[in-house]
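#onboarding

Welcome to the new folks! Below is a worked example of what a typical request in this channel looks like: someone posts a single protein sequence, and someone else replies with the predicted structure as tokens. Don't worry about understanding the tokens yet, we'll cover that in week two.

Example request:
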Amino acid sequence: MLFNKNLRNAAKNLMLAPGYLITIVLTLGLTLGALSSIFNLNYLLNFEPLPYPDQSRLVISNWRHTDDGKLKFANAQNYPGLREMAKSADLFEQYTFIKYGEEILQNDPSKSKLKAAYTGPEFMQLLAAEYELGRGFQESEKIDSHNPVAVISYDFWQGHYAGNRDVIGKTLEIQDTKFSIIGVTSKHFVEPQLMSIDNKTQAWMPWDFVPETEKDYHDWGLFFIDIFMVAKLKTDQPSKQADLLLSNAINEKFHAENTGVAYFESRQIEVSLKKFETVILGDTQSQTLLMLAGMVILLLIAAVNVTNLVLARAANNHRKFCIKAALGANKWHIFSAVLAEISIVMTTAAVFSIMVAAIANNLLANFAQDHIPRVAELQLNLVTVAFSFSVAWLLALAFATITTQQVKYKALAGAIQTSGKGSGLQISKLLRTTLMTTQVTLSALLVTCNAYVLSKALDNIQKPLGFDSEQVAYVALELGGVNLETREQWMSLVQDLKTSIANHPSVAAVSIGSNAPMARTKNMEWTIAVTTEQGGGDRISPGVALIDEQYVPLIGLPIQQGRNVTAEDVANRNKVAIINRTMAKQIDPSGDVLNRPVYLPRQKDPYIIVGIVEDIQVPEQENSPRFYIPSISAASFMVKYKPNVTISPVEFNQLAEKVHSQIYLYDTYNMDEIHGQKLSLDKVFAWISASLGILSISLAAIGLYGMFSYSVTLRKFELGVRMAIGAAPNHIISLLLKDALVPLLLGSAISLVSLIGIYHYLSTSSLFLVELDITSILISLLIIVAISILSAIYASNPLIRNRVIYSLRGDN
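Example response:
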């Protein structure tokens, strides 16, 4: 009854103090809302099960390649290897294969690209997929049935077919095969992101139609990063035992099939069956936990600020407490009244935080789908709502307890007898020092961490690529429908295509190039195994590009040593090559490798190194060896546009059709756009860290100002006397800063020790690579000191600006 009565009174009192209510609701509502959203995300990633039955038994294969114990490839498999693993079918309750890729939709007038996956009926069965229309693959579409059907995604159905319910029976023409659409996945179907976070399959076709060559089918020396086995382990089958059995079988068969191949003599393949959860989440959990830690610190900073406001509110209500004590109220009555008021405030803040969390979830779902796994599944749940209200009420309890402890109950009744003259609720020096120390510590920690993340993100964003990406595009044309009898005819056709593109008024230059300097994938498009000696020597796996003499100058790739390839080298396919500096150092640490031979597998005559170019600094990718060979072998080009113009896909198809009616555009992308995409995560981190940094600095400024403002109020008469006898404004400010010196130094020391501890933990963890950034630490401490000085000046300004008599009389 008492608490209910206090609630009604508190509601009336808060109506008279809207500024107090709004300030706390906004401060804690925003910070608690952001914390709740990140908590929601962490709960989804760490505790919410995947939307598939028996998720703990769902696995996907991974081959880890090592040579002499050194890692060569983290994930690369081959077709005969998948079939070899299938011979151990007794390990699995169900299994199938899957290949991810992109295909041209030939019966689409614009020849649009389609994100495709080739698999068996077991895949959708493992996921318990549901369908908006039609059905999924059945036994009639199992491997070796050769039934050309397709299942499309809900999003593709909506985008390409405008949600037309007559889509069942329509065809997708891919690789000259017409696939009849038999089903559309449900709107709520969640595709497991097994290939990459941003890979969203638009159509699934049977495994029989994988566009593999005869060589792909049989060759144990070819590896691909887009093919896998997916399976459900038997209930009693330990995954480690399955890994060992499969590794032994694959290594035995691999070495038997590659007997006499020196490059593979020391190769060992470690097969692991990784759980879906492990592959999908990767190291995202550790990153989101760090985000959660940052949000907790931000909330604590806000809580310190609110503590100041609550204490100031208690100081203003001191006379009311005196009256209650005089009428017989005990300490519990005072606590109940304070708790009732702050509970209403915090409950309102919690409701507001739920709204903020919902908005934040929506932003994450819309803008972070290509960076954070499962984020599309993010939605508010009861756990998150309970978390928000629990944190709010715990803070309310803490605020009420701290406030009540500052009330000297025995002095309340006596204070009313003196009409409160010369008395009031005074916050203890220990509490003020503790609050300011906490404020400085948390602010310095958060500002330093955000400054570090921001500086690293900006370093990546501003890091030069090492080549000219402006107005440069990669263009690949499909020649599948063209029948040519001789290599000369092929070269002539490619040259005609090059000329057709070069004659377009928007084009400044064109070169032939099988690979773009910066691919859309995380890895280079095409790598090859080479050695420095025939049948032996150092083994290197560079990215390969077949180029003409215009490739290097078109992309502005600096030549460090030697020369570029010539037109004669290209026409005659001379055995010369250009390599990058990383590959040069792998061959010889001195980098002086001009005129050295490099051998390709199964070739007797080596390529002679005639030039060394600078490395290309691709975001998300370590410096890799690169190998440039003069050759006209593919209808793919690097195109340099004139300023402020480009060529559309439709125009490219028109240019190709002029050369041959069966040629069409397969792919095109601008280097600047790809660069922007690769930097998108850095840009997200830059914005988040900058926003958190600014918010933490703002909260610190508000909190420190509140502290100094209270100090001015507390020492108003003393400071007035000092001013009356001639103290200058600078002296008054120095007195306030002197009071703050201990908490400033103590907070700085605690934050420094904490940062060193965090650095030590992260530097010894295999999940993180960090550096001790002294600059970020110094900047954050300087910011805190500057905020303190400005807060002291601003808080003392009313005292200094007014006449001394007001301070001596206690007037405002």
